[in-house]
Amino acid sequence: MINWGKVWSDFFIVLALTSNVGFIFSHDPYQLVIAISVNLIATVLKFGAKKIFSAELLATALVADLHLIPATFLYFSDIHVGLAIGLSIGAAVANVISIVLLIVEIIFEYKKAEEEEY
After folding, report:
1. What is the pTM (predicted TM-score) of this model?
2. What number of other Cβ atoms are within 10 A of residue 41's Cβ?
3. What is the pLDDT of residues 52-72, one digit of tens each?
4. Domains of the chain, residue spans
């Protein structure tokens, strides 16, 4: 049976990374707004997650948010666009770590399911 809560949570985790990488390459202000919005949604979804690495996943989401929020202010105020892009790259690194944790968690869940069958 499909756990739709997990599907949506994982969907937004992956979407957070892809939208952030999209901004890094395009430097489009709309892409930055999408990236920060999706990252904030992913963070909210991680609050209710009951996963093996819940605390670590939430920490990576908060790191990404704390990179993207100042990046947004810097980018739109035209104070330091280069720094904004650098902060966005930092958020992308946090999102990659989140994806790696997600993959490790999936492996643990499959191993646990296999052990329960025997």
Report:
1. 0.91
2. 18
3. 788 999 999 999 999 999 999
4. 4-117
